[in-house]
Structure formats: structure tokens, C-alpha cells
Amino acid sequence: MTNSSYAAAGVDTAAGDLAVELMKSAVSKTHGPEVWGGVGGFAGLYDVSFLTSYRQPLLATSTDGVGTKVAIAQAIDKHDTIGQDLVGMVVDDIIVVGARPLFMTDYIACGKVVPERIASIVAGIARACAETGTALVGGETAEHPGLLGVDDYDVAGAATGVVEADQVLGADKVRSGDVVIAMASSGLHSNGYSLVRHILAQRGIGYTDRSAELGGVVGEVLLEPTRLYTGPLLDVLADTDLAGAIHSLSHVTGGGIAANLARVLPVGSWVEVDRSTWSPAPVFRVLSDMAGSSLESSEGTWNLGVGMFAVVDAGSASSVIARLATSGIPAWVTGRVSMAPHDITGFEQGAKGVNGGAVRLVGAFAS
């Protein structure tokens, strides 16, 4: 007799229920009084009564995933940091427009629900949500037997934030003479891992191998979690002494350094980003050496040490840098905006459908 049960098809609902029980505590720690209903409902509920105090509240939303970085987490069976990568990719896009994140939901698709693994992923999401002041109000774990391998999974998420209409950051606020501040990344973050994996495969290097050049187990080094910028930037934006200092922000993710900065500059402006103002971390140098290529050749793929840019009023630059430093974010001046006529041959100009300013990197990286 044919067994046509859901379990026989490879879906374990009991394992899914156990995963929810294991993650409940971590998720609940992100909840304030605005969250109604707790964990496990069909939909997350969030009280937005406070929006009545806004003059013209705009909701900001963002969605993203972690990309092929999850393949490394799966390869070395380490899943407690990938959640921070997800929050960084999603929530740090919301701060770019000046919005405060309110809540987030996640989605995990897997070949087989291993409760402890799912709980570890979600615990990482919850920790990062708590760090950024974001409530994790819901999520979904979907088992896809036959489509994904038993140890395969992918993660995605979406978040919503709010900002006053007259406080939205963007290219329209940028002026000639503004200073470009670079904020240090913690490493590769969550972009360019297809290239990373290709380089390692070409060299026959495994994720569990030790590398003296990288300073540890290869997979563990590559899983360094994405730095979170939302909290420190919210502190700067809330500082009355720095009111209006930040004009635009750029999250350096897919597309690389110049293209992402160009998206938040006005048409007709240009910036030369000075490479000599920072030294890319060893992980970038080692991978470039393994590939037999230059650091410069990967500027459109990796962040090379810059995870976020701020375009600020020149007179406030030192104060913004100092404030970021108190939150543990190294930052430095790396360029200046100009509206003067200039030959922009060789510059990146806008990206992802945005016709923005022009940016190119100049000079040599610091050693």
C-alpha cells in the first residue's frame, strides 16, 4: 500500500513545530509593547499608534537575502552568524533613507528542517534585530524536499521602517563641497561570495582548511558577520548638534564601491574616492593574490573595507566621524563632492536604474 502521508513525501511538521519552540525565546527578546500576539501567528501585529505624532510619516521597506554565503555556513555546519548578515542586508538599506526600522520578517527555505539549525539561524537574526532596534514579528520555515538537499537552505527577509517626509536622506540634499565619509566594513559582508567560492575552488582550498594567510579556518574567516550600521547612524541622526549634517547615505553591497555611492549623488556631481585613505583587510588581499588579480579589479564586486558611505556637510565631518567612533565604527574622509564641470570619462555614473552622480576611485590603497 502506498504511503501518501506528508511525512512520506519528506515534510516533517513536527520538526517545524520544534524549531518554533526553540526560537521563541530569542525572537521574544526583540519584542516591545508595540508587538501584539507573540510568536506563531499567521501574521505579525505591530501597533503604530505613535505615527500620529509624525507630521508626514513615510514607511520605508526593504527586502534581501544573504546570497551564496550560506553555502559556506552549510559546509562547516556553522549557522549562528548568517542571521546577522540577513539583518545587515535588509535593515541597513532602510537607514540609507534616514528611516528608523520598526519590524522585520524572515523566510527560510530548506531541504529538511533540522530544528537546532533553524533555531540557530533565527537566533542570529533576533540578536541583530535587537541590536538595530527592530522587532522580529514573524517568519516562515518551508521544507522543500526534492528541490533542496537535506543540508541546503536559503534565507531572506523584509523589514519596514518610518521617517518624516522632510527628513528623508538622498541626492537632493547633497551640495557641492560636501564631504564623503567612508565607514569600515567588518570584512566581505554578504556580497561577492560567488567569486570567493570560485577562487577557492580553483585553488583546491576547502572551507575546513586552515590558512596562515587568512589567520584561521577558511570557512570561519569567510563567515565574519556583516557589520551593522543602523544603530550608530540613528544616534548621529538623533543628535541635535548634528541635525541636518548627513545629506545622503550609501550601503555598499552588490555593484561595488563606486556604483553604490553614485546612486546617492545628484546628476551633475562627481567624486573621486581616494584609495590611499584606507587599507583593505587581509581577507581581500589574500583572495586577490589567490586569484592572481589586483584589488582594484574587484572594486565592482567586493566592498574592500568600506561598508557604508555618508555624504555630509563639510563643517560637520569631524563631529560625525567622532560620533561614529564612539559606537565602534571606524570612519574617515575619503572624498569631496563637486558640481564643477569635469570630464567624467572612466567614472561610474549611477546604477540599478538610478541616474545619479559620477564616481571613480583614484590613487593606490594604503599598505
Automatic annotation (TrEMBL):
Domain PurM-like N-terminal residue range list: 59-163
Domain PurM-like C-terminal: 175-340
Residues of the signal peptide: none
Location in or out of the cell: Cytoplasm
Gene Ontology MF terms: ATP binding; phosphoribosylamine-glycine ligase activity; phosphoribosylformylglycinamidine cyclo-ligase activity
EC number: 6.3.3.1
Pathway(s) annotated for this protein in UniProt: Purine metabolism; IMP biosynthesis via de novo pathway; 5-amino-1-(5-phospho-D-ribosyl)imidazole from N(2)-formyl-N(1)-(5-phospho-D-ribosyl)glycinamide: step 2/2
Chain segments annotated as transmembrane: none
Pfam families: AIRS, AIRS_C
Highest taxon, organism lineage: Bacteria
Protein name in the entry: Phosphoribosylformylglycinamidine cyclo-ligase
GO cellular component, one term: cytosol
Annotated catalysed reactions: 2-formamido-N(1)-(5-O-phospho-beta-D-ribosyl)acetamidine + ATP = 5-amino-1-(5-phospho-beta-D-ribosyl)imidazole + ADP + phosphate + H(+)
Species: Cryobacterium roopkundense
Major place of residence: cytoplasm
UniProtKB keywords: ATP-binding, Cytoplasm, Ligase, Nucleotide-binding, Purine biosynthesis
Cited InterPro entries: PurM-like_C_dom, PurM-like_C_sf, PurM-like_N, PurM-like_N_sf, PurM_cligase
Listed GO biological process terms: 'de novo' IMP biosynthetic process; adenine biosynthetic process
Coiled-coil positions: none
Keyword Transport in annotation: no
